[in-house]
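Exercise: predict the fold of this chain.
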Amino acid sequence: MRSMWKGSVSFGLVSIPIQLYAATENKNVSLRQVHEADGGRIQYKRFCTIDGEEVPYAEIAKGYELPDGEMVVLTDEDMAELPLASSRAIDVLEFVPLESIDPIHFDKTYYLEPQKNAVKPYVVLRDALQKASHVAIAKVAIRQRETLAILRVHSDVLMMTTMLWPDEVRVPDFGFLHDDPPQVRPQELTMAGSLIDSLSEPVFEHEKYTDSYREALEAMIEAKAAGNETAKPKAVGAKADVVDLMEALQASVSEAKKSRKPAASTAKKATAAKKPATGKRTPKSA
């Protein structure tokens, strides 16, 4: 793993320098968009919808579109003025039981590694959290966005999980919630309970479940590669430009020849008209 962020965990007067690592990774098979006929990659370019010109990355700013369609442009200088007091600190605000937090608020999870001179305070905080059976509620700013987070212990390592803000969780508002609830018979509840009991396990074993779709997709790709069912896109470069240039030149030559034929015929007629007739010379008049 590679460190993606450096900062410190701050609670009370204690500051623990740490490094942040992504705790999870996406295992989806990466597929590119290609031209079905020859396997050539599809490319996208950044261009301005007003002048139609391609825009270099250095000239791209952020914008917020107003309801009337007007755009508020925010430059890097504007963004730098925004207050991010905790830009390099994970500020602990309080401690609460993990069970008091609904998992719907959880976002992304990271590992926290102590720097060499901060192992002891790191271990103290880790062991104190385990002993209290609590998690720490903190505030942190990552990539110019401030968010709440929880600190908890997993496999003897402090782990930080960022959280959504309260207004980022949608309130369910479905029609059936406003209707009178249907009458459920006790026998139906008993049967549902029996089904739950028959499928219940004492603990959740994550390892026994696999991504069957990804496995099938990987097997399909391997089979096509082994059977040489692949497309090798032609290299795009100077050679292709030369071919296009030769074609353009040949077309130009052909057009030039066509345009010169009528002129050549006219020139022949003009030459024939100027040529004197053969035969006896006409004597000069006295």
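Check your answer against the key: Confidence is low (pLDDT under 50) at residues 238-243, 263-267, 277-286.
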